[in-house]
Amino acid sequence: MHVSFISLAKPVLHGYFRSSCSWRVRIAFALKGVEYDQAPVNLIRDGGQQLTQEYKALNPMQQVPAVEIDGITLSQSLAVIQYIDETRPGPRLLPADPKKRAQVRMISDLIASGIQPLQNLYVIQKVGAEKMPWSQHFIDRGFQALEPILKQTAGKYCVGDEISMADICLVPQVYNAERFKVDVGQYPTIKRLNQALLEIEAFKVSHPSRQPDTPDDLRA
Q1: 77 Cβ contact partners less than 8 Å away, ≥ 6 residues apart
Q2: How far apart are CA 16 and CA 213, in angstroms?
Q3: How far is CA 23 from the centre of its chain?
Q4: How many of the other CB atoms lie within 10 Å of CB of 123?
Q5: CA 178, CA 172: separation in Å to the nearest integer?
Q6: Do residues 31 and 93 make contact, with C-beta atoms less than 8 angstroms apart?
Q7: Which residues are within 8 A (CB) of 65 and not within 5 positions of it... i.e. 6 or more apart?
Q8: Using a CB cutoff of 8 Å and minimum separation of 24, what contacts does 133-141 make?
Q9: Distance between CA atoms of 204 and 162, rounded to whole angstroms?
Q10: Whether residue 1 has pLDDT greater than 60
Q11: Rounded CA gap, 211 and 219, in Å?
């Protein structure tokens, strides 16, 4: 049910072009056709702009994204996506069917809790010189679990034939896997779904290569 307190002001996404969590939110906004403003937070420059006191007041975890929307500030990408889904018209990002909805949440949580945090910037900075094998290990470990799950749940997309929050989580994670030189070909279902999703406009316009803060050498 869509509620009636939607603000006329555009949402503001505080994010980083290559942050997979920020990318998830960009995909959700694009799928829903929601116009929003971006306030880039450079995770590298000046020692990390997310570590400033100004940004800490916005998101005490000092991570991206943070989203100002309807008079509140939300962090944690899955919470943001579900809020967008519950308050904006357009295609559902979580299915109406309880079993499919649970599968979408399962896949989303597997990625957002079980894979991505182990190779985010803060963690690999702590790992240091071993960051590449560390990241490859944990991505492979997650994909080895995800592949058989998706074989059971997938149709055209991660759960059946409708795009969902699970797809929103999958594509940025595959992008990260490729950055860390993981052989995605080992996971044919993941590879097939990712290729299909990257043909969809919402995934194209939200891609890290097409953002306001994308460095010139990484632009599409």
Answers
A1: 21, 22, 24, 25, 65, 112
A2: 7
A3: 5
A4: 15
A5: 10
A6: yes
A7: 13, 14, 15, 19, 21, 22, 25, 75, 77, 80
A8: 135/176, 135/180, 136/180, 136/181, 136/182, 139/115, 139/173, 139/176, 139/177, 139/180, 139/182, 140/182, 140/186, 141/115
A9: 18
A10: no
A11: 8
174-183 pLDDT tens trace? 999 999 999 9
What amino acid occupies position 106? M
- How many other CB atoms are there within 10 angstroms of residue 31's CB atom? 26
Whether 219 and 209 have beta carbons less than 8 Å apart is answered as yes
Neighbours of 54 (CB within 10 A): 7
5 pLDDT above the threshold of 70? no
Residues 6+ apart with CB under 8 A from 212: 17, 38, 40
Axis-axis angle for helices 77-87, 165-179 (nearest 10): 150
Nearest-angstrom CA–CA distance, 53 and 30: 30
pTM equals 0.95
Tens digit of pLDDT for each residue in 197-210?
Answer: 999 999 999 999 99
Q: What are 83-105's pLDDT values in tens digits?
A: 999 999 999 999 999 999 999 99
DSSP string, 144-160: HHHHHHHHHHBSSSSSB
Residues 6+ apart with CB under 8 A from 209: 218, 219, 220
**Quick one: how many helices (H) and strands (E) in the chain?**
9, 4
